UniProtKB/TrEMBL annotation:
<dbReference type="GO" id="GO:0006511">
    <property type="term" value="P:ubiquitin-dependent protein catabolic process"/>
</dbReference>
<keyword id="KW-0863">Zinc-finger</keyword>
<dbReference type="InterPro" id="IPR037275">
    <property type="entry name" value="Znf_CTCHY_sf"/>
</dbReference>
<dbReference type="InterPro" id="IPR013083">
    <property type="entry name" value="Znf_RING/FYVE/PHD"/>
</dbReference>
<dbReference type="GO" id="GO:0008270">
    <property type="term" value="F:zinc ion binding"/>
</dbReference>
<keyword id="KW-0479">Metal-binding</keyword>
<dbReference type="GO" id="GO:0005634">
    <property type="term" value="C:nucleus"/>
</dbReference>
<dbReference type="InterPro" id="IPR017921">
    <property type="entry name" value="Znf_CTCHY"/>
</dbReference>
<protein>
    <submittedName>
        <fullName>CHY zinc finger domain-containing protein 1</fullName>
    </submittedName>
</protein>
<dbReference type="InterPro" id="IPR039512">
    <property type="entry name" value="RCHY1_zinc-ribbon"/>
</dbReference>
<feature type="domain" description="RING-type">
    <location>
        <begin position="234"/>
        <end position="276"/>
    </location>
</feature>
<keyword id="KW-0862">Zinc</keyword>
<feature type="domain" description="CHY-type">
    <location>
        <begin position="98"/>
        <end position="168"/>
    </location>
</feature>
<feature type="compositionally biased region" description="Acidic residues">
    <location>
        <begin position="11"/>
        <end position="36"/>
    </location>
</feature>
<dbReference type="InterPro" id="IPR037274">
    <property type="entry name" value="Znf_CHY_sf"/>
</dbReference>
<feature type="region of interest" description="Disordered">
    <location>
        <begin position="1"/>
        <end position="52"/>
    </location>
</feature>
<dbReference type="InterPro" id="IPR008913">
    <property type="entry name" value="Znf_CHY"/>
</dbReference>
Length: 364
């Protein structure tokens, strides 16, 4: 009863205010008519009063409705007050779409999904999380995973390798430090010096403290050590090579690149993308360079396009002076490589003709 009395008092007070406002508006209209100013057409007082009363009663009904949540009440009241002219925006969706709890993970063979510590969503693995995340969402930190969901019984539980409800084993291999579950087919192992798990078998790799990476035992004794060589991005795909799931490859110059990126690069370029040195052995390139030298000898440049230049060899880092330029390349006289760049143009075709003419007139 007290609520009804309060609402009736509020309704009556609002009605008195409406009548006072209408009287003021009528006085302003009469003043405007007396002054000769055309006043805008006003709705009839009775119709406006009925609409205001109906609107207040509808708002009171929404406020009393206990089945509606506070956001729904605010949206309906706003729609009434705006007269339906303003579209009320729906509530924002979740930051990351929630995949099916039993959705298959294409990256690892396991019987559990993980609960992302950053957004509390369930994903097949950390890579699934990163691939399904919207732009700008940070990658998952594998070391912060604390909960998993069993794929067989859908039980959410603390991270482990055995389901607390159905006793199912989540993975043939489990690392509690990296929160990794996978099969033994790729021979995973944990490297304490790297700080996480790698694949390929612990017997096939040795850790290099200088490179800060596990190196294959087949090339460990001959590989070129470079401080934190693998703690860089691949020069082709720009992915971090230290934590990448793709295997890196050492180039003869000492730089590292993803093996699959190198295969793509070798299809159209034989140089390191960082230092521009030839990544193929000199013996392998000798036949190609001899063939190019023959082409240059058989197709000399016309006089108007001839140039005399200084060059720098990317392979032996030797600078050579007054070399004859050709559009097919300029061969280094020291190592016979065509991996050279023009350092300076000394003269062009017209200048060469002038020099020859001066030399001829001087001798006469």
């Amino acid at each position: 009863m007290s609520d009804d009395f309060n609402m009736q008092d509020a309704e009556m007070a609002d009605s008195d205010d409406d009548f006072d406002d209408e009287e003021e508006e009528e006085e302003e209209d009469e003043m405007n008519d007396d002054e000769g100013v055309a006043a805008p057409a006003q709705p009839e007082p009775a119709a406006e009063e009925d609409a205001a009363i109906a609107r207040r009663r509808a708002i009171q009904a929404i406020v009393r409705d206990t089945t509606l949540s506070e956001p729904e009440k605010r949206q309906r009241i706003q729609a009434l007050m705006s007269g339906g002219r303003i579209e009320v925006a729906p509530p924002p969706g979740p930051l990351i779409p929630a995949p099916d709890g039993n959705s298959a993970c294409v990256h690892y063979e396991r019987n559990c999904n993980i609960v992302a510590p950053c957004c509390n969503r369930v994903f097949g693995c950390r890579i699934c999380h990163d691939e399904l995340s919207p732009s700008g969402h940070p990658p998952m930190n594998r070391f912060l995973i604390r909960e998993v969901v069993c794929k067989l019984c859908n039980t959410r539980q603390a991270a482990g390798n055995c389901c607390a409800h159905c006793n199912a084993q989540f993975g043939e291999y489990h690392c509690g430090m990296c929160n990794l579950w996978m099969s033994q087919s790729k021979k995973p192992f944990h490297c304490n010096r790297c700080g996480f798990c790698r694949v390929g078998g612990v017997e096939a790799f040795r850790h290099c403290n200088e490179c800060c990476m596990c190196i294959s035992v087949t090339v460990f004794d001959t590989h070129q050590c470079l401080k934190d060589k693998y703690k860089n991005n691949c020069p082709v795909c720009r992915e971090d090579m230290f934590s990448s799931r793709q295997s890196p490859q050492d180039l003869p110059c000492g730089h590292a690149i993803h093996a699959h990126c190198f295969r793509k690069l070798a299809g159209f370029d034989y140089r390191c993308p960082i230092c521009k040195k030839t990544v193929v052995s000199q013996q392998s390139m000798a036949a190609a360079w001899e063939a190019r030298a023959r082409d240059i000898a058989e197709h000399p440049m016309p006089p108007e396009l001839q140039r005399v230049v200084d060059i720098m060899c990317n392979d032996c880092e030797t600078k050579s002076h007054r070399m004859v330029w050709h559009f097919l390349g300029i061969q280094c006289p020291r190592c016979n490589s065509f991996n050279t760049v023009v350092d300076q143009v000394l003269s062009s075709g017209n200048e060469n003709e002038s020099e020859q003419a001066n030399a001829t007139s001087g001798s006469a």
